[in-house]
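Customer escalation, tier 2.

The customer says the design service returned an amino acid string that "doesn't look like it belongs to this structure." They asked us to rerun it and document both sides in this ticket. The original structure tokens are below, unchanged.
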């Protein structure tokens, strides 16, 4: 976890031009990240610099049924909010994001479901939906220690910012999937070659044998290929 102060140079703004420049700078930083995790880590720190009044921020993944996990945060208090306070109900404002793109908590001491935030010294919250499908939500939430911090202006900035975050996150996810696909292809190729040598068969027969074994053992082809490659490497090391 990188301290929020590491992004303290993130620009504040006084008008639309300054806001546009700040968003462009944030977008550049986001698109410099290479994995979804690094994108989200950058996003929460940038959120603190961009959103007026924001002191902390976090990104959470919510699943149908109430399961929730924090995937990026600027302070441990943000993770504590996710877990809730022992003996008290967890904050409920996130649940509204299944139906609304933005939810604001004006004062956690007076609003229903806000007690866990208040106990942890967080009075205001601005939750913005990043991703949504039928099974899960990805949400960016900004927090402040004072009540009534996030107004319409902050919400506008938040929605513009999360649009950039969503695009950068999608781009990083695609890159990661392509990288994993290439690694899987190479791994399966190595396993196929090992089977060709062991069983004295051609490439097509070797691949078919690998697929049948994967189905028979109910193991992913990638995992079975890794097992074969790792076992072959271990045998070579033992014999060297």
């Amino acid at each position: 976890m990188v301290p929020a102060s590491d992004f303290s140079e993130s620009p504040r703004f006084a008008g639309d031009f300054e806001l546009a420049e700040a968003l462009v700078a944030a977008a550049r930083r986001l698109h410099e990240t290479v994995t979804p995790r690094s994108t989200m880590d950058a996003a929460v720190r940038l959120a603190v610099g961009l959103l007026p009044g924001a002191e902390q921020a976090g990104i959470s993944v919510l699943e149908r049924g109430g399961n929730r996990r924090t995937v990026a945060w600027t302070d441990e208090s943000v993770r504590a909010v996710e877990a809730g306070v022992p003996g008290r109900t967890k904050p409920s404002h996130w649940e509204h994001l299944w139906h609304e793109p933005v939810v604001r908590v004006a004062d956690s001491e007076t609003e229903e479901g806000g007690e866990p935030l208040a106990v942890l010294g967080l009075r205001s919250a601005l939750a913005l939906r990043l991703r949504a499908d039928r099974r899960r939500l990805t949400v960016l939430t900004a927090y402040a220690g004072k009540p009534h911090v996030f107004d319409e202006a902050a919400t506008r900035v938040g929605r513009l910012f999360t649009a950039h975050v969503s695009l950068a996150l999608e781009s990083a996810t695609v890159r990661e999937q392509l990288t994993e696909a290439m690694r899987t292809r190479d791994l399966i190729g190595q396993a196929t070659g090992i089977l060709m040598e062991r069983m004295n068969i051609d490439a097509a027969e070797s691949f078919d044998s690998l697929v049948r074994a994967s189905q028979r053992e109910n193991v992913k082809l990638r995992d079975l290929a890794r097992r074969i490659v790792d076992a072959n490497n271990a045998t070579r090391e033992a014999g060297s």
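Tier 2 assessment: The sequence is consistent with the input. The chain has two domains: 4-173, 178-239. The first strand starts at residue 56 and ends at 63. Sent an explanation to the customer and offered a walkthrough call.
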